[in-house]
Amino acid sequence: MNTILVTANGPLECRGEIEIVTAAGTVVAKETETWLCRCGQSANKPYCDGSHKTTGFRDTGAPAPAAQPTDTGRPEGVLRVTLRLNGPLRLDGRFEVRTPAAGLISPAGGHEGETPGSRSETSP
Ligand code: FES
After folding, report:
1. Residue 92 domain-assigned (yes or no)
2. Which of 5, 36, 52, 54 to mutate to test the pocket of ligand 1 (most atoms within 8 A of CB)?
3. Which end of the chain is more exposed for a tag (fewer CB within 10 A), N or C?
């Protein structure tokens, strides 16, 4: 099951079958559990290095209104995370998005999109 938890004031906690991919399509990492930076301050992008704690990053992870996916199948298979220069990460695959406060905010489905709550202008 691919799940992305938008942590309050912190990274995206990702669990499942995850591939980290360059913009050219080269797989650079395969993960089952990883924390992706969404503050833009990590020195080890796309991964969180804890810098959000010292830079004062504040974002509750509360969802913005968004269209619901039409496919509500199980969030399984590969979640592909594509790195983009000076832009948010691109997510392709089946996954669900959760926040500690709101719970499930985007049910499983065939999603494509950018990392939720991404504020980075310098990532990866
Ligand atoms: S979210 Fe942790 S360093 Fe950016």
Report:
1. yes
2. 52
3. N
Residue 104 lies in a domain: yes
Q: What is the pLDDT of residues 83-109, one digit of tens each?
A: 988 778 888 888 888 888 777 777 666
Which atom of ligand 1 is found nearest the CA of 120?
4
Expressed as residue numbers, the domain containing 86 is: 3-114
Distances (CA, A) of 102 to 64, 75, 115, 121: 11, 19, 17, 26
**CA of 39, closest atom in ligand 1:** 4
Q: What is the pLDDT of residues 14-23, one digit of tens each?
A: 999 999 999 8
The CATH number for 41's domain is 3.40.5.90
The helix (H) or strand (E) run that includes residue 12 is strand 12-21
Residue 119 maps to a domain: no
Contact 72, 107 (CB under 8 A): yes
What's the domain count of the chain? 1
Residues with CB under 6 A from ligand 1: 10-11, 37-39, 41-42, 48-52
Residue 89: predicted pLDDT: 86
Is it the case that residue 7 has pLDDT exceeding 80? yes
